[in-house]
Amino acid sequence: MKFFVDTADTKDIAELAATGLLDGVTTNPSLIHxxxxxxxxxxxxxxxxxxxxxxxxxxxxxxxxxxxxxxxxRKIADNVCxxxxxxxxxxxxxKALTSExxxxxxxxxxSANQALLAAKAGATFVSPFVGRHDDNGFDGMALIExxxxxxxxxxxxxxxxxxxxxxxxxxxxxxxxxxxxxxxPPAVIRSLFNHVLTxxxxxxxxxxxxxTGQKIG
Length: 217
Ligand code: E4P
Hints:
Number of strands: 8
CATH superfamily: Aldolase class I
Strand order of the largest sheet: 1-2-3-4-5-6-7-8
Radius of gyration: 20 Å
Low-confidence stretches: none
Shape: globular
CATH topology: TIM Barrel
Largest sheet: 8 strands, parallel, barrel
Bound molecules: erythose-4-phosphate
Distance between the termini: 39 Å
Helix content: 40-55%
Number of helices: 11
CATH architecture: Alpha-Beta Barrel
Strand content: 15-25%
């Protein structure tokens, strides 16, 4: 499963990229706002930090303006992936852009039928929001299972990008279901490293090493 980080904070992206586990980045208008940075500037910088896809979202709601915005965004770098909402105009834009070889991430997916539409429109990625689904009394991971089943039934090439990931269990379940990608905030990715027995093990080994009185090098 590929790991994307869901942030526009370049410090976090650079640090996680250095671990070698980062396959891409997702941003959205709220994350750009949180960064306090200029959209074009920060997107360009992020594209230089990772080799994989960097999702940059259009904000227009109509197809012609979405296309104009996408055209500006895709010129930023070769690894820009245009993010469009799961609407009729969004999917028209998806079809047009992917036919031209531009990567598209169809976002704000909340049902398996919507995911089916995104695949039929040729989306590179579809982003079902599991956390927001859970928040509203639905079962986010059941949605991922349904989409996996449907995509496998018809051999769709669209990658399932699990979004709105809130905790390590979402990551674990995504991997067990066979999602292609998950995108999570930096804090959730960092939490994956943690285990109380790892910390305890390090403390024990260091305590015993001290007793040897030795040094390496
Ligand atoms: C994904 O591309 C979205 O940016 C993101 O995962 C939304 O997550 P949230 O529900 O925590 O805002």
